[in-house]
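Pasting as-is:
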Amino acid sequence: MAVTDIHDRLQQVVEEAGLPFAEIEAGGAEGSHLQFSHGADAAADPGESLVLVASITKSVVATLALKLAAQGVLSLSQRVTHWLSDLPAVPFRRITLRHLLTHTAGLPDQLPGHEQIRADHADLNEFVRRVGEYGTDYAPGTDCRYSSMGFLLLGACLHRALGGPLPDALRDLLFRPAGMHRSWLGIPADRDDLLEQAMPCQLPAWQDADCDWGWNSPYWRRLGAPWGGLLTTAGDLGRLCRVMLRRGVSDDGADVLAPAAVDALVQEQTRWLFDLPESVWRRRPWGYGWRFPWPEHPAGFGDLVPRSAVGHWGATGTVFWLDPHEQIYAVLLTTTPFEDSRTALQRLSNAIVGALRV
């Protein structure tokens, strides 16, 4: 199927799945070849509807971390307690930034009772304090379990390393040089207009429609959670994908990332952790904050996405991936929870790969 013939197929999948909103961009290092919109913000340009992309945030935060590593600001072997000295030495002294970036730190995905913590409108410092009280579930480096709280601590470490807020650092060091002008880790306090522009999410069963802490609440959209608080567009994520495919160079020719940083992000990293069993890293390989496709996993990117691709998914119904070998990428954004949109996203990915790999 050629790219020019794919729109009808994408529309059919979206309608069969009952998705009220979808925006898709796909292409290669030279630019976008495909843009698709369904139920988009009529006031926004194509591909520029503002969407809460949930855990895709992790790949973006990891990209900044590797940029800083390539600048000598930090080392991935540094211990978390070097930056966050208030955490208890036991067990946190054994955790490194590398563990956080590869989901091998021993930290939980979410804290027990996290709904109440959000209902209390806790700030990120309170989340860090609660993680310090909770501790770890296993010895760092001995298993790989998906961990949003690992990226909470990573964000706090980057804040300390930079001496300023993480959202500002992302804006100045990554978003602006990459041309990502509609991307925010948390909506700024002086931009109420963005709260109105952002697409509303369909909510999962564990969030009541009238709660004041869920995905659609001003609290959550302003929090700037480094594990899931990014609001961005299909167009901006496409720009980031092209930066990665060009090993650090933006559409405008700006040097955004060092090639070595890009290489480290997209190369398999978990297999080199000394204490991680082979049975773990073979089944669930990770780069630094960028995941491999895992086609047999329920959260796989799609059946036909090359195994050399990397990317991420988000609980709000989002997926993006890129393949540095095939030099292709795709961004698929919906507002339907991933458990309900997963099959549609995988079908859409399959159709996109079929069109791009000709």
